[in-house]
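Complex 223.
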Amino acid sequence: MTRRFFVTGTDTGVGKTQVSASLLRLMAAQGLEPFAFKPFESGMASRDAPADGLALQRAAGGWQPMETVTLFRFHAPLAPGIAAKLERRKTSWRRVVTGFRAFGKKAGVVEGAGGLHVPLDASHDVIDAIDALGLPVVVVARAGLGTINHTTLTLNALVARRLRVAAVVLVHSTKEADASTPHNRGELERRFPRVRFIGPVRFQRSESRRREAFDEALSSLVE
Ligand SMILES: Nc1ncnc2c1ncn2[C@@H]1O[C@H](COP(=O)(O)OP(=O)(O)OP(=O)(O)O)[C@@H](O)[C@H]1O
Ligand SMILES: [Mg+2]
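Predicted structure with magnesium ion bound:
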């Protein structure tokens, strides 16, 4: 089994980086030297400090030069395709594909930006990157109210493009209790009986406990 995934989400801020970092840590713990790839990242004060790129680089074991983790970086906290236009910066789809191919057959994780239909450039959304790289998808979704709708829309879009879904991970990324939480997973499993659901991963303010919670939830994906 090749342990490589494209991690997307139903939205921004749902826990994609937490899930990606956990998958990378678990792979690194198996001695795999996994690659981390977050080709487009926006919303950073300094281009030397892409937060997601740095978190993924560290989780993968720190062996990768940052230029191979995060190719295109934007200051504006906007969809990459919009931020690039605003900041008059050129991106290259070819570099995304060749940057990915350079990892060869290594295990690893690609993190998208926001959700499936976030524009990466003038002619590609995140879903086109998933298609081009040919990786099984891990969908990260909120554990709370709204997730049945967002997750259904996301899974239907992937199915329509015949893209493989490795798992949906429900994450409690905020501390607020939500009456919908006990019902979400059951309803989604009823709608998508062939999809593997993981979680909900509980909210953990402590970073070490949060890591433990994600690693425990995701370990079956990298066995
Ligand atoms: N289980 C959890 N417990 C506590 N905090 C969490 C949990 N999951 C996510 N968070 C927090 O929620 C925030 C968003 O998570 P994360 O950065 O992984 O989202 P993302 O989907 O990668 O966002 P983006 O679209 O910006 O890349 C972070 O501050 C993260 O630490
Ligand atoms: Mg992220």
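Residues 4-222 form a domain with the Rossmann fold fold (CATH 3.40.50.300).
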